[in-house]
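It is worth pausing here to work through a concrete case rather than discussing structure prediction in the abstract. The textbook approach is simple: state the sequence, then state the predicted structure, then interpret. We follow exactly that order.
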Amino acid sequence: MLVPLYEAVYERLEVGSGTRLLGLGCGSGLALLMAASRGAVVTGVDASSPERVALARERLLPETWGTRARADARIFDGALENLAEAPGELPYNLVTAFEPIGCVAGDSEGLGELLAAATPLAARGTPVVLVGWGPPERCVASSVLRVATKLADPLRSTRGWRPALRDDLEEVAQRAGLRPDGSGRVACPFGYADLDSAVRGLLSTGFFDAAITATDQAQVDKELAEALHTHKRRDGTVWMPNVFRYLIARTP
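Step two, the predicted structure:
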């Protein structure tokens, strides 16, 4: 769903054969794959989901490229320290953190520390890309994702969710010692063939894992489907327009 965002960032920063990219929270590796297809040398780190990291490795294994094998693509499961022990081609000249923040209170916690730890691995003046949700009135999916917070901790749900703020990304960059150097907005609609596909697609993000643990799978499926029903169109498809904002900051 964030492909338009990845494309916009890579085009603006002219990602290509001279790019040595470090992807923080790389997830299933789609953004890395797109950068590698432009000729970039890519490294990904993710501690959130072993299953998604396994998919990233599968996507970026040299044999998947045929004659265009990229043995220099590397994926690390776990903390950034794992990367520091096998840094590969340093310094990096692009760092990305494409996991959007700014929808749930506290969802930026830890990102500043992660960025501060990654900074020594990057060249001076390296662009660091941060991504956040746009304002609620332009992010239909944010109301659906709020279901996860409500189910995970009903007593704190009103404090768990908050609207995205204009300076969320700048505050994270400042805490990490980075210097803002431009931003942009990109439309990234979430579209699904039907309601069942929408439920499966959103569950695959991992955002609802805590809610499933606190309640059960059937309850989460039911409430998520109810929240999505509002966005079901006459032809049965589910469509949720969203706008995401990215910030380009520079390492000192």
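Step three, interpretation. The chain has a mean pLDDT of 86. The longest strand covers residues 179-187.
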